[in-house]
Write a structure and sequence with these properties.
Helices cover 42% and strands 19% of the residues. By secondary structure, it is an alpha/beta fold. The protein has a single domain, classed as Aldolase class I (TIM Barrel), CATH 3.20.20.70. Helix 3 runs parallel beside helix 4, helix 5 runs parallel beside helix 6 and helix 6 packs parallel to helix 7.
């Protein structure tokens, strides 16, 4: 996947959707960012539906990232994604039941790989194991992979490069992208997309979130 990695703006902090997500989206909707997402907690479903509908009204592609580790919780997350009219379900520990549900409801499924635990998430496991695991999910019909690259306990840059290179499918590098150095590493790895959430609220790229989003979009387009 050699195109410019796409920014998915996550209206989240520490793997939880921020309470003023609607207002934050409104401030960012006119930037070049075309992908926006939330986590499954803690906003009420009705608020989530309203915000996702607004995102779609503004021409955005929508994602729900589910930080859950049991099949029951993951399936509830997939059902929530369908109820909200999301385009992409990110996260969850892969299961055939969730995969089948996503395929039946035209929801693009991008599960986690590796040993994922805690919230905010931590990623463990060997790179070779994760590549083989990812290939098996793609073979079963998953759209792509949600890789918690910068939550990895090992060499994140190497993991990102090798997994993207080893897969013929979209990869999203999710979590802890909080510096221009890491943006440069993402340019090198060339995934389909990457997420930024907490770093925007921590003001790592600019004091103003909409300006920060615009800066990141512009930086990724530079050679």
């Amino acid at each position: 996947m050699n195109n410019t990695p796409q920014l998915i703006v996550m209206l989240t902090y520490n793997d939880m959707t921020v309470e003023n997500a609607y207002e934050v989206f409104e401030s960012c909707k006119d930037t070049d960012a075309m992908f926006f997402g939330m986590k499954e907690e803690p906003l009420p479903p009705e608020e989530m539906k309203k915000l996702y509908a607004r995102m779609k009204e503004c021409g955005k592609t929508t994602a729900l990232e589910v930080v859950a580790y049991t099949e029951e919780e993951c399936l509830r997350g997939a059902e929530l994604g369908v109820q909200c009219g999301c385009d992409i379900l990110m996260g969850t520990i892969f299961s055939d039941k969730v995969n089948d549900y996503c395929k039946a409801h035209n929801l693009k499924y991008m599960p986690f790989v590796g040993k994922v635990y805690d919230r905010p998430s931590v990623l463990d496991g060997t790179i070779d194991e994760m590549i083989e695991e990812a290939k098996s999910y793609i073979a079963k019909g998953a759209y792509g992979i949600d890789l918690l690259g910068y939550r990895y306990v090992g060499d994140a840059a190497e993991l990102n490069r090798r997994l993207v290179k080893g897969l013929d499918a979209p990869v999203c590098i999710a979590g802890s992208v909080n510096s221009y150095e890491r943006l440069d590493e993402l340019k090198d790895a060339a995934p389909w997309a990457f997420t930024i959430g907490s770093a925007f609220f921590d003001k790592d790229f600019d004091e103003d979130i909409s300006t920060a989003v615009a800066k990141v979009c512009g930086y990724m387009k530079k050679d």
